[in-house]
Inverse folding.
């Protein structure tokens, strides 16, 4: 018997977040902040993937967010909103800090969630 759609979807969004975070790290690997800021395509692609991490985070059910409260879900979503709506006011130091400090930790946390909820997963009431 297949799982209800809502129980599968959140795990797909975790997978999406992992993929977007991996792209952020891949795009910025071996760059310092000045090099990152000087490469427009890398900068734009990285910001887009940071936005997508936040967009996917909005799709994670409250029960899952509550269970994994060590992940700063609200901050991730707020960062997405800031990047999308305040494109002229983006603080490059903050973006670089997110890339260097927050994304590796987030990726580790998301992979931990994924390892707990493999293909068969569990229901949302006990994430």
């Amino acid at each position: 018997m297949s799982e209800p759609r809502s129980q599968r979807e959140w795990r797909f969004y975790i997978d999406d977040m992992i993929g977007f975070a991996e792209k952020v790290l891949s795009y910025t690997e071996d760059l310092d902040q000045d090099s990152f800021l000087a490469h427009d395509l890398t900068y734009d692609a990285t910001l887009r993937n940071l936005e997508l991490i936040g967009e996917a985070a909005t799709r994670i059910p409250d029960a899952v967010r509550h269970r994994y409260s060590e992940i700063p879900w609200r901050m991730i979503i707020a960062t997405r909103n800031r990047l999308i709506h305040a494109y002229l006011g983006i603080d490059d130091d903050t973006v670089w800090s997110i890339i260097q400090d927050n994304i590796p930790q987030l990726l580790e946390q998301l992979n931990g969630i994924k390892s707990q909820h493999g293909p068969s997963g569990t229901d949302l009431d006990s994430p």
